[in-house]
Amino acid sequence: MRVVDVVDLMCLQDEGEHPHGISNVRFDALFTSDRPVIFAYHGYPWLIHRLTYKRTNHNNIHVRGYIEEGTTNTPFDMAMMSNLDRFHLVIDVIDRVRSLGARAAHVRQNNGGRADRGSGVHP
Hints:
Low-confidence stretches: none
Structural class: mainly alpha
Shape: flat
């Protein structure tokens, strides 16, 4: 597992598209060319897809991001409503990394105890 902290979104573009962009070789070295990538982003997911659509591994990039619900909440509530909390990110990993499937099925199955508590988000 690898964690990549993207500070400048423009680096996701090719170096020929933007001055901050990186080469395909560098992009593949950071994000791999054949492994699942789970991208947690505080904005709209489509932006990440638009910035990476020409990259080798684009089909394996899954973006969790802001889901518009038309309401104002705390940052914690927004993360929960957008499925950006740690639990959902772990489930994304379990769903996409084949070798984890059987070993981590219990985490996915019991829903981390959340089914009993609800999301914690108040309408």
